[in-house]
Amino acid sequence: MTTTTSVYHAGSRAVQDRVGVRGAADHVGRSVGQGIKPVAAAFLQLQPLLVVGAAAPETGRVWVTPLTGDPGFVRATGPREMSLAGTPRPGDPLAHALASEGTRVGTIALDPRTRRRMRLNGRSRPTPGGFAVEADRVFSNCPKYLQKRESWETVTDRVPGPARHTRRLTDAQRAFIESADTFFVATVHKDGAEVSHRGGNPGFVRTVSPAELTWPDYPGNAMFLTLGNLTADPRAGLLFLDWTTGTTLQLTGEAHTDFAPDGERRVRFAVTEAVHTERALPLRWSAPAYSPANPTPPG
């Protein structure tokens, strides 16, 4: 049985207490389970995209990678098991991790058409043609800050470009980040990994320099799983993607949270390495309708 004690570690509790939302967090935490309910299984089977985060065993760096396929490529194959038909591209920062037994992973399935998202965390194991995750925690998030995209299609003749590795952000990459309305962030703790979604109007993420970017931590569900992890372990990974061209930008580094006296929270992320791949994903989504919850970024 999952309890709020097992859902939250000391890092999350410290942030909840600092913000004054422990009671709300306990209420939300009761929705976290270990099993994949029928409604969640049906949701998974409709998705063409799953985002996975973990620490690479070779370097210890945290990365996020997107996996795609025809609906049904990710599905529930047991009361506590999710299976994927497919693996990351060769050379992906998480290719080895997801081919290894027992890697602690966080995953998120996000459907812009319905503005629904589901998170499943656990341990991976390789399978013929893919991998499976035995679930430790399964839960859904509210649609706040999630942009609506009505439809998607698979571009069958799209050919991925080579993965370009850099230590700093180029001007083009900085512009790419600052035009984003969505990104994914992976964090880790001693018992697992988390992948979360961050959304806002374009401009909500700012690049301070070629080595640092920052974003506001908008009010959410009071769980503070991501910020809680960062209080104990600053390692993090980010994924930005172009929903039209399929281009991806994967970043790894360290993140810290600044708490302002007025209650505003801002996360600062220092870049250790970037992997930029043109046309990495075959999916092309329709234009977004921005979430009505998005604050307007300061000019």
UniProtKB/TrEMBL annotation:
Gene3D superfamilies: Electron Transport, Fmn-binding Protein, Chain A
Any Pfam family matching the protein: PNPOx_N
Domain of life the protein comes from: Bacteria
InterPro entries referenced in this protein's UniProt entry, alphabetically: Pyridox_Oxase_N (IPR011576), Split_barrel_FMN-bd (IPR012349)
Location of the Pyridoxamine 5'-phosphate oxidase N-terminal domain: 169-269
Protein name: Pyridoxamine 5'-phosphate oxidase N-terminal domain-containing protein
